[in-house]
Structures are given as C-alpha cells and as structure tokens.
Amino acid sequence: MSKHLKRGFQGLALLPLVAVAGTAYAQEAAPSVEDLDQRIKVLERQLEIQKEESDAKAKDSATVSANEKGFSIKSAKGDYEFKFRGLLQADGRWFVDDKAPRTGDGFLMRRVEPTFELTLGKALFFRIQPNFGKDSPEVSDVYGEWRIDPAFYARAGKFKAPVVLENLQASSATVFNERGFPTELGPNRDIGLQFGGAFLSSTTTYALGVFNGAPDGRDGTQQSGSTNSSGDNRKEVAARLFTEPFKNSPGLFQGLGLGVGGSYGEKLGNGDSSQVKYRTPGQNTFFNYQTAVTYDGAETRISPQAYYYRNSFGLLAEYIVAKQEVANAAAHEKLDNKAWQAVANYLLTGEDASYTGLTKPKNSITQGGVGAWELVARYGVLDVDNDAFTNKTYADITKSASKATTWAAGANWYPINNLKIALTYSQTSFDGGATTGDREDEKLLFTRFQVAF
C-alpha cells in the first residue's frame, strides 16, 4: 500500500472523531435559553447597582442655581444653603431753582449692599448685609434666626424694628429713591430680640421685639436706650400685626393687606433728642430740637398701615403718630408729631405690581421688547406739634419748619432683568423754617441706576 493511500485511510478514520468534537463545540457555542436568561439577569443587576451608586452620589451632591433672584448653593437634602444677593443704587440729586444752600447737586452711591444668607439645618438662619455706599461703610443688617415653626421664630441681632410699612419694604422694591415721611417718625434699624411668625394659612404675620431704642428716623446704637457711651437699662418694645385676609383666594381683594405697628419706650437725655432731624426727600434737615432740649419720658408710636395690589396697580398708605415727652430746663411737654403718606404705582406694560417689587419685565429689550415701564406718584405730610414752637421752648420756628408737605411723580424703566432706571420729580413746601416766614420750597429731580439680584 502506498504511503499516500495509507494516509487517506487514516484521515477517514478520524472523521467520526471530528464530527463528535464539532457537535460538542456547537453545543457549547450555542448556550441554552436558561443560560441566556441568567446572563440577562446578571446584566440587569449590574445596571441596577450602577443606578443605585449614581443615585447615592446625586443625593450627596450640592446643587448650584443662579437666576434673577440671586445665586445659591444648596445641599442635596436642602438642609444647608448659601445665598448671595446684591444691591447697587447709583443716584443723582438735582435741585431746581434753589436759592438757599442745599446739600448740593451731584451723584452719589446711595447703597452698595452685598447680602449673604446661610440656612443651617433648615432651623437656623443667618444674614449679614454691609453697606459700602456711605462715606463710612457700615453693617446694615446682621442677625441670626431660629425657625422653630412657620408660626414662630426667634431673631437676634441688628435689623429693622417692626413698625413702619414702607421702611420694612426692601430698598430695591421702593418705587421712589427715598422713603416717605412716616419713616422719619418711626424707628429704623435697632439691636434687639424679636419673636414672630405666620399663621392662618400664612395670611397673618406678627412680630414682637425688645430693642435698645432708636430715635425717630434713626438707627439704634450698641448702648441701651441712649447714644451716651455709658448706656443705661432702658429698652423699647416694638410690635406689628399684619394680615392679608384674601391672600389665598384669587379675586378682587387678594392683594389687600392691613395692619398696625407700634413701639413704646423710655428715652431720657439729649443723646436721643439731639439725633432727631426730620428730613426732606432730598435728605435736607427741616426740623430739629433746640440744643438744650432733652427727651424726658416715654415715647409712644402708633402706625396703622395698608396696601393694595391688583394686577398692574399698587397703592401703599400709612399714618404714624409719635408722642414724646421732652424737657427744656424746667419746662416739660408731651409733643404729638404726625406723618402720613400715600404711594401709588402702575405698570404700563402689564406686569403685576407687588410689595416685593419687580425684577423681571415680561418683554426685555434683549427679547425685542420695550422692558417694563412704571408710573409712580406720592403725596405725604409731616406735621410737628405746634406746642414745640411756643416761645421757641423746644424748637425755633425761624430755623425749623412746623410742617412739610410733599408730592412727587415719575417713571421707572426696567429694560432687562435686575436693572431699574428711574427719573422722578418731588416738590416739598414748608410752614415756617425761615427768618422771613416759610422755608423755600425744595424742588428736586431724582435719577437712579439700580442693579438688584
């Protein structure tokens, strides 16, 4: 048998073995339905594990947001949050036809206020707001708050006393450059402890606080009840109750708010009385006490207040009476000084008016629109008790006016989000205040460039 023929028979003998091996390989290469199902289950579980890990990371990741209301960093559960906001107000004051010396025409940085807010574990809140717009920078607000429940919080630090409606409105939200006459009689910021909250489905808010005590229209000081460095133990109590009874019921009266604020405290010495300087819209002093006058007893302030906002229309009205005991040597008197105002605004471009102000026009100029346009008007009076001028005992009618009456009108333009450009005119007339009779009218043109977020 030849060698080639022998090899051929050997190859044929191997064919069954090759066939068997091929069948076994084929069976191994084609897994069963059970194997495929098992593999799918393994893959599904791996995907579930990956999703669980991704969700766990997302729960621990902070979220960053930025919009027209500011910037914030918030923990995944919302327990911790940092917010940064800001306000810049660059003003112009232009006095018209003034013959007597004024503060002068020109530009000024009215407010430069970065605001930092921290929420710690939902229950704790901290706010600090410095103001770099003044010649001597100061901290406007700095306080901590323990938010036990929507109906109850405790606040301690420096903040606005809860009395005057427009004074409690955010500076970025006021429709005029300066607040009206009721703010001149009420306390401004003070140092103290306040309790407050909201109830009746958040339609009613209350605040009750005890403070060092602030002179009319001014901030309180570190010292208790006096600007004297020695201080004393006198305190001032302030409270406010405000309700929006139809807040949760859409309709004609949904934007109606009614309330009353007030304060009571002992004030003694000229440390408080020397700070009383009632000012015009142009921030010129038109009334102050004689040098020898001192506070000599309790001061009581009562301020009924209201606002109404309906669609594009807004109206804010308030009244305040400040009853203060004063003395000059042996003379003693209880003076009743009063102020009131009404402020109206109307948005021509259809945005909703509100107490919190406007930051976002419906159609900004970047979207091809005209921005938001707002018309504003004000009328107000501050009337000093005539008994203050009897025989020039407490005030000199030739140097201080007994009454100031102001009206103002203007327009505000919001071309894009967070920007406001204002042009307003105010005119204030006086009873007394000059050696020749009545003080010269203050005629004033205001401008403002405001960035708020």
List its traits.
21 strands; 453 residues; Porin; 16-stranded antiparallel beta barrel; two-stranded antiparallel sheet; 15% helix; mainly beta; 5 helices
Question: What report would you give on this structure?
Answer:
The protein has 5 helices and 21 strands. The protein is mainly beta and 453 residues long. The strands form 2 sheets. Strands 3-4-5-6-7-8-9-10-11-14-15-16-17-18-19-21 form a 16-stranded antiparallel barrel. A two-stranded antiparallel ribbon has the order 12-13. The longest helix has 27 residues, at 3-29. The radius of gyration is 35 Å and the shape is elongated. The N and C termini lie far apart (104 Å).
Query: Class of the largest domain, according to the CATH hierarchy?
Result: Mainly Beta
N- and C-termini, Cα separation: 104 Å
Query: How many domain modules?
Result: 2
Low-confidence runs: 4-18, 224-231
Give the tally of β-strands.
Answer: 21
Q: For the record, what is the CATH homologous superfamily label of the largest domain?
A: Porin
Give a short overview.
With 453 residues, the chain is mainly beta.
Secondary-structure blueprint of this entry?
Elements: H1 3-29, H2 33-59, E1 63-67, E2 70-74, E3 80-95, E4 106-120, E5 124-131, E6 138-149, E7 152-160, H3 165-168, H4 182-185, E8 189-199, E9 204-211, E10 236-243, E11 256-269, H5 270-273, E12 277-279, E13 285-288, E14 294-310, E15 313-328, E16 331-347, E17 372-383, E18 401-414, E19 419-434, E20 437-438, E21 442-452
Antiparallel strand pairs: 1-2, 2-3, 3-4, 3-21, 4-5, 5-6, 6-7, 7-8, 8-9, 9-10, 10-11, 11-14, 12-13, 14-15, 15-16, 16-17, 17-18, 18-19, 19-20, 19-21
